[in-house]
């Protein structure tokens, strides 16, 4: 058997790496073209002002955990080429993967609010993706250390009939790492591949001794401290892996990623038994060969596509990470954030908004397109006269006012723009049965572009209103802090504008715009409903109507499920 990379390479806690080093790097040397004296092979170390082993080691770990698209320090390998990540910096590009941008946003927000449970949740999700980059090759096949470790954990927990204690997890981490990094790794790998019982493991000690033991002996060894926790070779690796609060596996195990790891074990064992490769080998090969890393997000969906359960867990983990990361926006003041903060948000949102509904652009646009629609009688209804296609009038080209016009309009009519919230006079009637329309032809690209333009114009209108409202109330300091977050950061937050009431209370505004009247229905997304419930009375849905002829709006406050009649119009579907 041959092994070309250790089963672990952890030298730091991941929270330390991303909160301190990674944030400093992305806000500094990785986001600016270096001066001439730092464009050489050791330019990164020179740029951070430390040419010692520290920056080299941290940079190597950042690359191996998948947050760098290319190395920023040259590996100590014979014939290694100029580090491609640092070359990207020299060329004016940021060498970060999507995972790296996630890491920066979460790390930056944790600096501002280290105890925020949402951000801790986001860090745990990150850990479950980082840990998939830790692996080793045996007989030419890649294995993920986390899967093998979880397999051993499951067996011991099954024998004990309980979860492992913190000490037992720490000892098990040392045993698995020592075994996998030895010439006897087959005593663990063979049971893993065959899904059979593990007979034994080994401890390698600092004094040169090797101790073999049965897996079910481990609890007694840990309880009686027959071996000290600091007596193992690579004892820090076990600590960084299984520290009760900060270890990478501990974090992954308490996140949604634990379910992904369990699914991956089942799939990986099947593939290994058939002699097939690891699903993530493209990422692991890139890291092993010091090549540019395409990033795990760019390959996982395709790699997992043939395994619906696994794909579902990956998508749910990404959704969890995206949702938790959204909370980071509220931990950082956008008007003082560095440019890389905005860049990172756009990089994350460029691929993560897969759940965006048709109406999440802030418009309703329920009027059809200029196509023929033939009404067909519903079952049991009498047929009318021979139906004739009804030719709808061509849609009038949407002409939107300029930003200057809207600014002037807000200033002139500030006291007239906001109207009272409508009050329902009675419960809504049940929808009457209608004839079934034949299929229509819709230019979805054109419709989406029109919706987005209308939505952005309506958001700008409300954004300007919020600023003018606060200025008129003598709150210029608050007016300066109003943020049009959907414009700056992109969709997916569940609201478009962060503003303030005159008393300084923060409010979150979701803007829905229509060219029609105030009673026109509109779409809201599942995410918007969820965020409205989370924010409570700080959440406001601003309904802009008669736009742009005579724009007015009313505001609904609190949970959308309490203030709106919500009707299902589509479903998120998965293959069974």
From TrEMBL:
Domain Protein NO VEIN C-terminal, first and last residues per copy: 458-555
A Pfam family reported for this protein in Swiss-Prot or TrEMBL: NOV_C
UniProt biased composition (Acidic residues): 363-375
Disordered: region residues: 363-397, 417-449
Protein name, entry field: DUF3883 domain-containing protein
Cross-referenced InterPro entries: NOV_C
Membrane-traversing stretches: none
